[in-house]
Amino acid sequence: MPTITEPAGLSPDHVGRRYPATDPYVVSAAKIDEFAAALADESPAYHGSGAIAPPTFAMVIAAQAWHHLFTDPELGLRLDHTIHADQSFQWDRPLRVGDAVTATLEITSVRRRRDTDIIGLSVSLDTPGGEHLATAFSTLWHIREEAA
Description:
Layout: E1 25-26, H1 29-39, H2 58-70, E2 82-91, E3 100-113, E4 116-126, E5 132-143
Antiparallel strand pairs: 1-3, 2-5, 3-4, 4-5
């Protein structure tokens, strides 16, 4: 009887893998203003002194943690074979001008469907002093190399 083997690379065995935190990203009024302008959101909360960042601004920082995922040679993932399928956030408080924020990525789920990996991620956004700010949850669809 032939043995069926899983393709090399990402597998459910990688669930729970955590990567080191990114270097701190300092939230600036200019970056918040640029992001709000890109969204065409003129809310006064995103402008002037005391500005807070729009909630989805967190992805600017969380996506920096994805670098670990796509450069992990054991996983064999390619950004150009990936679709960002879903995103949600759980907030403790908004990001503010002057916040220094690190991002720590964890693989929370891996499902294989034919030639596609469906990957769940959580990225913890924290200050270097340990204050938890938010968690960004993402689902990625990745088409494996052999299927492309």
